[in-house]
């Protein structure tokens, strides 16, 4: 199967063992460039304050339900205090009040998946000035607004696997559209730019004709899928780099005349995509383990609180069951490579 070279047999076995969370997901994620993190390093903080608050893009999102459960597992394993807060809707400034409250409460760290790269920066830097360590995960802020970013996979890797998958499914050429999350999602936008660059260089016959936004809402994504197919009668494939979008698009295709004619891939979870893979609506898709992402983010927060790391490149810290990690360029820690799911392996996963 395409992209299986990214995983050895040992890694696959480890992934099966690690993925124990059984909720369906609905995702988005991010990448950002480096910057000054001095606001945090100069703050006082409390090395014994292991109160860690997770702030996802929005509550009630199965993807973040899973990632935050991974964070809770980690926090409880090292004797900290876990809290999850967040808005009902993933709008650019909806997280500000929750950041301010956490700062007032004097938590040790905030673990945030940002709805916008800049809209929450002032609030985050106020928190850092008060001694709160700030970890972003899944979707980053500008680097000057946080101490460390836990990235699910490199933007290049995420883009490459999705373009390779759709190219294989449509024979390397034809019209393809992208069904994204929100227009402000930094991770989605980074991936899409990488997709366009990679597709142009590796698959000159593949044309990305449109990008639409379902705002990580099931019905909106469903309707956008229908509109794409009506607007582009020669469309051969859809890439949806968001778990809400790919599931909604698959649901539309499953009972439409386009099933088996228009290919669909992107980022999804085994539990939400299993039926679509088994009945042939979808051939293959990719993702990482969001529970591991939250777990890693919690251990990074612990290391920052305790002063084991500052977030500088080359810092090393222990991440419990996941082993040891090293901070890379731009104060970023990479969870690992994406993994491809298809009919040959999807039954082995439950998340």
Sum up the structure in keywords.
single chain; 351 residues; alpha/beta; six-stranded parallel sheet; four-stranded parallel sheet; 14 strands; 38% helix; 18% strand; elongated; disordered N terminus
Question: What can you see in these coordinates?
Answer:
The protein has 351 residues and is of the alpha/beta class. It is built from eleven helices and 14 strands. The strands form four sheets. A six-stranded parallel sheet has the order 2-1-3-4-5-13, with helices on both faces. A four-stranded parallel sheet has the order 7-6-8-9, sandwiched between helices. Helix 9 (243-254) links the parallel strand 8 and strand 9. The model is unreliable at 1-44 (pLDDT under 50).
Strand-helix topology:
Elements: H1 9-18, H2 38-41, E1 51-55, H3 62-77, E2 81-84, H4 96-105, E3 109-112, H5 121-129, E4 133-137, E5 148-151, H6 155-170, E6 174-180, H7 186-202, E7 206-213, H8 218-231, E8 235-240, H9 243-254, E9 263-266, H10 270-278, E10 284-287, H11 290-306, E11 316-318, E12 324-326, E13 332-334, E14 339-342
Parallel strand pairs: 1-2, 1-3, 3-4, 4-5, 5-13, 6-7, 6-8, 8-9
Antiparallel strand pairs: 10-14, 11-12
Helix pairs in contact: 3-11, 4-5, 6-7, 8-9
Helix/strand class:
alpha/beta
Dominant shape: elongated
| Spatial extent as radius of gyration | 20 Å
What's the order of the H and E elements?
A: HHEHEHEHEEHEHEHEHEHEHEEEE
Low-confidence stretches: 1-44
Query: Mind summarizing the main beta sheet?
Result: 6 strands, parallel
Mean pLDDT: 88
Counted by DSSP, the helix tally is: 11
Sheet with most strands: strand arrangement: 2-1-3-4-5-13
Quote the distance from N terminus to C terminus.
21 Å
Q: What is the count of β-strands?
A: 14
Helix content: 25-40%
Strand content: 15-25%
């Amino acid at each position: 199967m395409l992209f299986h070279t990214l995983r050895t047999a040992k890694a696959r076995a480890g992934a099966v063992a690690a993925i124990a969370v059984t909720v369906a997901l609905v995702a988005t994620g991010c990448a950002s460039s480096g910057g000054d993190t001095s606001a945090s390093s100069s703050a006082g903080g409390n090395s014994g304050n292991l109160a860690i608050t997770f702030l996802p893009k929005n509550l009630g999102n199965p993807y973040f339900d899973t990632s935050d459960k991974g964070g809770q597992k980690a926090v409880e394993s090292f004797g900290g205090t876990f809290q999850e807060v967040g808005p009902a809707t993933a709008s650019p400034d909806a997280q500000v009040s929750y950041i301010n409250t956490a700062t007032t409460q004097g938590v040790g760290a905030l673990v945030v998946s940002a709805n916008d790269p800049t809209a929450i920066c002032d609030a985050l830097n106020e928190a850092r000035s008060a001694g709160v360590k700030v970890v972003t995960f899944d979707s980053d802020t500008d680097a000057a607004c946080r101490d460390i970013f836990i990235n699910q996979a490199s933007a290049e890797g995420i883009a490459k696997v999705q373009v390779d998958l759709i190219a294989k499914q449509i024979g390397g050429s034809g019209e393809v559209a992208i069904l994204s999350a929100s227009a402000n999602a930094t991770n989605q936008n980074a991936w899409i730019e990488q997709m366009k660059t990679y597709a142009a260089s590796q698959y000159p016959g593949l044309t990305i004709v449109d990008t639409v936004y379902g705002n990580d809402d099931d019905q909106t994504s469903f309707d956008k899928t229908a509109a794409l197919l009506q607007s582009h009668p020669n469309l051969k494939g859809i890439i949806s780099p968001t778990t809400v979008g790919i599931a909604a698009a698959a649901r539309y295709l499953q009972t439409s005349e386009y099933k088996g004619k228009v290919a669909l891939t992107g980022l999804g979870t085994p539990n939400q995509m299993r039926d679509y893979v088994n009945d042939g609506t979808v051939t293959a898709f990719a993702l990482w383990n969001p529970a591991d992402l939250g777990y890693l983010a919690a251990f990074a927060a612990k290391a920052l609180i305790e002063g084991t790391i500052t977030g500088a490149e080359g810092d090393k810290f222990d991440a419990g069951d996941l082993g040891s990690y090293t901070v890379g360029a731009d104060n970023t820690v990479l969870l690992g490579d994406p993994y491809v799911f298809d009919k040959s392996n999807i039954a082995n996963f439950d998340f």
